[in-house]
Each structure stands twice: as structure tokens, then as C-alpha cells.
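request received
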Amino acid sequence: MKIAIFPGDGIGPEVIAEAKRVLEALSLPQLSLFEGDVGGIAYRRHGMPLPQETLEMARAADAALFGAVGDPACDELPREHRPEQAILSLRSELGLFANLRPAAGYPGLEDMSSLKPEVARGIDLLVVRELNGDVYFGEKGERAGEGGREGWDAMSYNETEVRRIAHIGFQAAQKRRKRLTSVDKANVLETSRIWRETVIEVAREYPDVQLDHMYVDNAAMQMVRSPGQFDVILTGNLFGDILSDQASACVGSIGLLASASLGERRTEFGTFGLYEPIHGSAPDIAGEGKANPVAAILSLAMLLRHSLGRESDAGRIERAVAQVVASDVRGADLGGTASTGEIGDAVLGAL
Amino acid sequence: MKIAIFPGDGIGPEVIAEAKRVLEALSLPQLSLFEGDVGGIAYRRHGMPLPQETLEMARAADAALFGAVGDPACDELPREHRPEQAILSLRSELGLFANLRPAAGYPGLEDMSSLKPEVARGIDLLVVRELNGDVYFGEKGERAGEGGREGWDAMSYNETEVRRIAHIGFQAAQKRRKRLTSVDKANVLETSRIWRETVIEVAREYPDVQLDHMYVDNAAMQMVRSPGQFDVILTGNLFGDILSDQASACVGSIGLLASASLGERRTEFGTFGLYEPIHGSAPDIAGEGKANPVAAILSLAMLLRHSLGRESDAGRIERAVAQVVASDVRGADLGGTASTGEIGDAVLGAL
Ligand SMILES: CC(C)[C@H](C(=O)O)[C@@H](O)C(=O)O
Ligand SMILES: CC(C)[C@H](C(=O)O)[C@@H](O)C(=O)O
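response:
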């Protein structure tokens, strides 16, 4: 089993170090780890945020564990050199079209949310976000016109793109509460019209899943009013970016949330995927041992489940984390004083 | 003073009727009211959601008061015939490029929000949304390709478009707490890069306003975590659609929120504008006298302020509404039993 590890910038290396300790403690057979540079650190060392070598490393691996990218020192660089470009390029180069972002209220942590505890407690949803298309990867540029300089970006989805992410969404719903909410802006966008028509077509293959459609503005409203109504949210790249961050905020403890980005490449043990915490590189606290490594450790659990077929190890990690979260070992993000390493120790202890 | 009144569909006519009673109670000099059809009712009567006659009525008026459009019976119609098209066409035909959506926690109503009371209480923001551009009004269509049918929409902003809405935003901030947050997705979109560069340029003319920039995903997160941090949010059409609905939900009492859409046309008394409640046509409760008319009445107050230069009448209405909201006269949306007419009576009584 080959795992590529990309710690990245800011608190990325700190949280990934703890996830690595957990991984090593599992003593998996024939495990090889490879470490590569991405983001601001890669730009400084190699002149680009995603060096070819890093990309090849991911291509050769069964799965990749990613920390975070983002570096204020790179803010003035042109977009193609900025750290965030690394994650966008990895997603497109590796064909990672399906982003899974579970968000659930953690028992005992409801008071961390700015939502009322009874509302936060009810959250148990999965955002399935398309990750290879939409206005993210359409043609884009600047042109001159009567109104001065104009920036433009082409948004689009075709049936093939929608179908493959819709299948992922419906299959996920089948394993959950069998409800899927497709989010679009079909009252305004042609992209959304094709999206909606294709989702309706795919839904016929999943008669056991209840499908409904919501405009994105209404979804953003419902996510605040009654997030407990959602099971699987299926949506495009741009709306998924917004709604999944909003959902994380509703849960209230972003230091605990993990994500998976999957493509079509099968490995010996499952599907190749890239796994990363929802949180960013948090440059303001980098190097201080204050970051919560739980999101990185839970990303590792998703990796074991989806890419290595090791459901039981994934479950073991998740149970250990739940135990630590319920204990008084809390990081600064949850109002406690435990350091990154102490939280890692506690998870290892509970394992 | 000529006011065009467009009650529209669902609860639109019911809430507008109460706003009209309030307007009549003010006994404005030389007031002429004109009433026109928009939305589903216009489609049924005239075969189109925005008849030419309605548009001409708006063009001839100093201001327009709008109820709501949306009618489930029209769901299967092609987009250009659907009720929502009426509001999109009015915005573009009348050049209403500036949408102002204030959202503030109402004293005594904090418990209506799903946010914790101390969080909801802190909300006092104004979304300034561009309303004539972005992916809403770019070219769009369907084409066939290798991936099957493809829907596409062109997103763009030019400097002229960004400048004029930015001025509105900064001027509004000057009258408020002097903070402006510009929301974009400049790490991905060229449209956003021009947006951000132009906002920075316009900001030089408003050195007393503190400007910051936020990516839309982060803004959606911050709106849940600490909405009290925002004063003016300046953003494009699509992000503004999402964030303003999210902000309304955070406040918790959407039946109380009003909006103004302004253009460049000056009238004898101010700027022509279209005023409407944030809430929709709510077909499920239409005709039952259960709708809260406060948002429509507050929309009238905005109309008096921005289009008719009658600040003191606007303030009078707002004070009367505040008094009613603080009393025990509450509609079903606020957990009470008062009917649409009873709430109207109470506002008239307090006037
Ligand atoms: C860094 C940025 C380009 C990225 C995105 O918009 O997809 C991030 O917000 C995310 O959600 O992973
Ligand atoms: C009805 C719809 C087209 C409209 C929009 O998206 O602008 C509505 O959501 C709004 O915000 O006024």
C-alpha cells in the first residue's frame, strides 16, 4: 500500500504529523509512505505550487493524505503560482471529480456551534460536491470592452459530468437515510437546467432514494433554519464550495471535519482518493502546536475506508477520536488547552 | 407622486393590501396609484409574466411596490414564461443594478432565529448586491458535445459595472459603521479578479471606510459563526443572492425583511426604485390571511425614503412597526395568531 503525504503549509505539517503517528500505530502490512511538497512551500522550493514530482507521486500511490495549503507571503503572486492552485491542479490532473464532505453534530460539542444546541445536534449530512467542472474549470480570461476591462468565466455542465457525480450521490444516500437534495439555480442558469434534468434521469435508477430539488439561495437559508432536514446534498463545484463551508460552520467545530476527493482510478484495494481536513492552513497559529489534528486523523480514517478497503481500521480510528472528543482533552478551537501533540497522544492512547 | 403597485402571486396581494392601507393613511399630497399584473397571474391573464403594460407603468412611476411572484402551477413552463422571469426582466429593463437588503436582529425576536440569541442579536448588516450583471444576464444556452447535452452560462463583470455598485456600497457604509466587506471568489474566477481590483480602486475615494475582502465560501461560514462582524457586504449578483438569503435566515424573521432595487433614473423626489419583501409568494398559505405584512410595509418605508424623499414618513412607519413587533400582536411566522389584517390594523393604530 502506497500512501503519498502532502503536508503543505501553515498548520498542515503539524496536523499531518499526528495523522502519520496514528497510521504507523496501525502497523499495516507493506505500507510505503512518500512525502511531497505542495502549496507555498513547493513554490518556494521549486518555483511552482504543484511540482511535477508531487503529481507523479500521487499518480503512483493508492491514496494521498493532504494537509492544507495557503500562505500569506504568496498573496501577491499571480493566481497560477498561488498555493491554492496546487489543490485545484491535483483535483483536475487526477480526475478527482467527487468531493465528499460529511458534517455532523458531535455529541457533547453542540455548544461550540453558533446555532442553538438543539439545531446543531440535528445536523447529520453529507455534501457530495462535483469537483472537476463548473465555472472553476471553464475557459476564463480578461478582455477589453466599452465598460473597461472585463473579467469572464464560462460555467457549464454536460450530462456525462452530472451523471457520474449523481450516481455517487445516490449511492451515498442509499447507505444513509435515503434522501437526496439536489441544489442548483435552475430558475436562472442553463447549466443548472441540464444539471436538474440529468439528476432526475439518474434518480430513476434509485427508486428507494427520495429526491428533491432546492435553489441554492433557499438551500443556504434552510441550512441555517433547519439543517437537520438534509441527508445527502448533491451539487456542483461552486455551490458545493459555499454550502459545504456553511455546513461546517453550522456544526461548529471545523477542526474536526474531514473530506475525501475521489476519482475513477481503481487501486488494488479500492478507489484512489485525496483526503484532507476541511480547515485551512491557519497561518496565524502555525508552528505553535495549537492546531487540532482531529480533522487530519479523521481524513486518514476516510482514506483507509475508501482507498484501502480497511473499514475496520477506519472505524477503530473514528471510535478513538469520538472517545477523545468526549473527554476533557480539548484543543484551543474547542475552548481547551491541549496541544496538537497531546490530542494526538490521546487518540493513540484510545486506539 | 406616482407609485406603481405590483401585488403578484400567492400572498403578494394580501401583504400589499396592508402596505396600501398604510400608504393611504399617510395622506401624501397628489398621490396616484397604478396597479399592474406581474408573475403567474400576468401569465394567466396576458400570456407573459411581465406584460408590456406593466413595464410601461413602472417606467412612468416614481417608484414601484412589488409583492411576490411564484406559482407552482407554472413550474412546468419554459423559463422565459415562469413568474420569476418578471422580476429578472424588471431589474434589467429598468436598469435596477443596486439591490439593498438590510438584515438586523429585532429586539425581542432573537429567539425566532436558529442562531443563539446572543449571536442573532448582534446582526446588523446591509447586503449591497449587484443586480444587472454576473452569470444571471450573460449569454447562456445548451449545446451538444461529446459529453451529451451541455448547459452553459457566461459569467462576467466589467470595471464600469463594478464601479457603480461599489460607490453605492461605500456610500452606504459611510452612513453606517464604516466597514465594507467585498465578497468574491478571486482565487478561482477572473470575474472576481476584476471585481476585487476595481473595488480596491474605488475604495481610494472613501478613505474613511475600512475595506476587507472575503472569499464567498469563507463569507458563508462567517455569516453563521459571527454575523455581527459584518456592516456592509458588497457582492455580485449570484453570491449576493445566496448570502442575502442566508443573512435573512440568520435574523430568523424573514417575514419582517424588506429590500430596495435602485437604478440611475432620478425622479422629482429621489431615485426610482422597486421595493419588495424578501419573502416569496408562499403558495401554501396564500389566501388564508396568515401572511405577515410587515416586510411589505417596511418595503413601503424604504420606498418613501429612497424614491420619494420622505424620510420622516419612512421613520414614522418604521417606529410603528417596531412598536407592533415588540407587542403581542404576532403573526403565525413569529409563533402568534394575528392575521394579516390584524397586523395591518396594529401598524395603522401605532402610526
Ligand atoms: C482553495 C480553493 C480554491 C478551494 C475551492 O474553492 O475549491 C477551497 O475553498 C476548497 O473548498 O477546497
Ligand atoms: C426569483 C429569483 C430569480 C431571484 C434571484 O435569484 O435573483 C430571487 O431569488 C431573488 O433573490 O430576488
